[in-house]
Amino acid sequence: MLAFVGLAALLASLVGAGWLAVVGAKAAVASKRGEAATFDLRTPTLMIVGGAVASMAVLEAALIFDDFSLAYVGTNHARATPFPFNIATAWSALEGSIVLWGLVLATFTWLVWRDHERRRDTLSAGALAVMGLVGIFFFGLMLTVANPFEVCIEAVADRCLASSPWPWSPIQAPADGPGPNPLLQNHILMAVHPPLLYIGYVGLTTPFAYAISALALTLPGPEWLRRTRRWTLVAWSFLTLGILFGGWWAYEVLSWGGYWAWDPVENASLMPWLVATAFIHSSLVQQRRGMLQAWNFVLVISAFALTILGTFLTRSGTITSVHSFTQSAIGPVLLGFLVLVLAGSFALFATRSHLVASAPRLDSFWSREGSFLANNLILTVFALVVLVGTIYPLVLEAFTGTQVGVGKPFYNRLTVPLSFALLLTMGLGSVTPWRHASGPLVWSRIRGPLQAGLAAGLVTAVVGTRIGWVVVAVVASVFVIGVIVRHLFELASRRSRATRRGLFAEVLHVLRGDQGYWAGQVSHVGVALVALGLAFTANLSVHETFDLAPGETFDFAGYEMTYRAPFQRTEPSRTVVGANIEVRSDGQLVGELQPRANHFGSDPTGIPSPAVLSGWGGDVYLMLINIDNTGIRLEANTSPFIWVLWLGGLVVAAGGFWATQVRRAERKAEALEAANA
Amino acid sequence: MTHRRFVLIGAVGVVALVVVLMVNSLSSGVTYYLYPSEAVAQREQFADGTRFRLAGTVMEGSIVESGSATSFVVSDGAAEIPVDLMGRVPPLFADGVPVLVEGTWDGERFTADEAVIRHDENYSIPEEGGAFES
Q1: Residue A655 phi/psi, 5° resolution?
Q2: Nearest residue, CB atoms, B26 vs list A178, A361, A392
Q3: Maximal CA-CA distance, chain B
Q4: Which DSSP helix (H) or strand (E) runs through A159?
Q5: In a 10 Å sphere around its CB, with 0-12 CB exposed, 13-18 middle and 19+ buried, how is residue A448 labelled?
Q6: Is beta strand A596-599 parallel, antiparallel or unpaired with respect to A575-585?
Q7: Per the CB < 8 Å rule, is A365 touching B126?
Q8: Is residue B11 within 8 angstroms of chain A, CB to CB?
Q9: H or E element that contains A392
Q10: Structural domain boundaries of chain B?
Q11: Closest Cβ opposite residue A608 in set B14, B21, B91
Q12: Do the beta carbons of residue A180 and residue A80 sit within 8 Å?
């Protein structure tokens, strides 16, 4: 029954999307010609939204009420799965995750429709048409190769074995299912990570839609940028959080003590983020100075294409082996869509960009514009490096059959220098004036922070560590944060002297006066903190292995730890075996850690779960190597100052979210102008 | 005008430098991935000291610990290669576990400095009689 409702909902969305594409295009053309015709864009939009919401509701209902007649439930869900992970099962596997994609896409389509309702212009009508076209693809995907509402036609007691897309087929439902991947049930971050990431990915569809609309309908100027600025910032901020939580989860749950492995799936999320960051910066240049218009088109098309590429890499099975990618039809379909998007968009760009993009001269490279150019260059090259590293093994295997891995050395050799160049550009660029910078002025703004950075580096080298990268990271981070803080106080104290009000009040005044700029500076502080956290954890971690009998004590990272006893517990789908470790500092009991191993059925491969003790100096991270009657082998690691990394990531996202609030200030200013006119 | 050309040349220069570094890194930083039967068949192409990754299962009863190294045999059902692991033993390393080691040939044996357990993406109870998937 549910399958019927779900499929009907998807069909409604598909029809709505097709209708929207057609009527949106008609409305845009009519509006461009100045005709006064009105078109019904509301009904198709509501069909898309209604269908998407209903399909998600059906999927969640099936999961919550244990309806195993749906094949998706029979392969991914178990009665024993606790809340909230039963809800999160909706996006733990491919078909369900596309339903989530559809829901987010429908939401953004609705928001674009609201923009059209308010402005009734060509640009937004065209954007709606493009959103409709994208919707046709994704809802079409769900009704064909990635059907979440297939019914189970052959089952054993604990899983569905075969399914059919026809909802009227005779159903054989299992009594229970295998449940989601247990690693996805350990940690709340994993339930939250996909929706955050998807809002980021799908959010980039909106600026893309406006850009294509501007190109196709030859609407010149930065209007499409201005209109989509807030959406791009929202998408970017969520993408930042999604990437941050993915890394945080990997660290807490997977037992290798790391948070980033240059894994193709991780890279798939990083690439759009890099390009979107470049886009946010270069769109500022276009809005302020009218430059880089053509380049902005390239960036937004690339960002959207990279989200499709990302989905393709993550979901098509290409990563396991290029040759397994054709086992399900989703791979070729996604690849085909990607090619279509790239070919169509760049064809449009090649033929129309000269009509919509003019390029005023760059006065001088030594200016804010110049620093944004440098920023764009570095970020684009960075994205290119990640792209090459990710795609190379696939291309090589497709053409020669050889399997290779591109590992950390490749990425680190290139991305570390690029990152430092980026930090430097960030620090300098924020205080470089527009148009033409005077050397003495910029020097006066950076001299103090530079001295502070070098001093901090010196202190680090003397008191802490001599490792080059750590010292350089300290210098760079202190420099960047110093420049920002110094600039804020210089502006505030200047005002304070003039108005005779308190410094703190003037700081708030300065912040409110240019929120967009200061929100960006907040994100820059976050980036500096991330760089610091990365440098510390990558270079200063300590590893030690201990062989312990029950009752033995050992010292590690300033703590006294005692292996008390092993434990074992049986859960519905697995057996958990682990060690109870007591942690003491100066005799006081600080905590109890339980590094453990999970065993499923008769599979000899256990999956380890680490135990993490967090503190201001960093984390202590314990992993079980071996456990038997006589004792355990434990691997202990430190992650020095890793909280700086997590905090930095949150601050980056916070800056992005703050920047979305600027609109209200602008609107207030507009309203004031209108009132005074 | 000259200013603009300078900026353009600078940008192209940076991109060119990065491309050169990338190509260089790819040719030296890429690691081949072989099963034991492939490694044995391609023995000549991988001289002693050339790094590659070996993927297979740890043979039952083959794990021997000595002071500096852990020795075991990696098999893919068709060929077997004795391995000496000098680095950290991965968590839950045991008989029958699918493993990925990185290192070089050393005569008849394989000297590895890195090892990880290969998990397939499913983490669910494997079906009876199912072999591990490549």
Answers
A1: -60, -45
A2: A392
A3: 74
A4: strand A159-164
A5: middle
A6: antiparallel
A7: no
A8: yes
A9: helix A368-400
A10: 1-30, 31-117
A11: B91
A12: no
For residue A307, which of A270, A345, A349 has the smallest C-alpha distance? Answer: A270
How does DSSP assign A595-613, residue by residue? -EEEE-TT-S--EEE-EEE
**Does B125 sit within 8 Å of A178, measured CB to CB?**
yes
Task: Determine contact: B109 vs chain A, CB below 8 A.
Answer: no
B93 at the A interface (CB within 8 A)?
Answer: yes
Cβ–Cβ pairs < 8 A, chains A and B: 115
> Would you call A407 an interface residue with chain B, using a CB distance cutoff of 8 Å?
yes
From CA B134, how far away is CA B119, in angstroms rounded?
Answer: 10
Kindly report the pTM of this predicted structure.
0.90
- What Rg value do the Cα atoms of chain A yield, rounded? 27
Residue carrying structure tokens 């999927």 = A59
Per-residue pLDDT of A255-268, as tens digits, reads: 666 889 888 888 99
Residue in this structure with the two tokens 């990696």, named with its chain if needed: B74
Q: What is the ipTM of this complex?
A: 0.73
CB A31 within 8 A of CB A10: no
* Interface probe with B: pick from A156, A605, A630, A637, most Cβ of B within 10 Å: A605
pLDDT digits (tens, 9 = 90+) for A406-420: 888 889 889 999 999
Give B100's DSSP letter: E
Q: Which CATH class is domain B31-117?
A: mainly beta
Q: A239: number of CA atoms within 13 Å, CB side?
A: 29
CA–CA gap between residue B120 and residue B134 (Å, rounded): 8
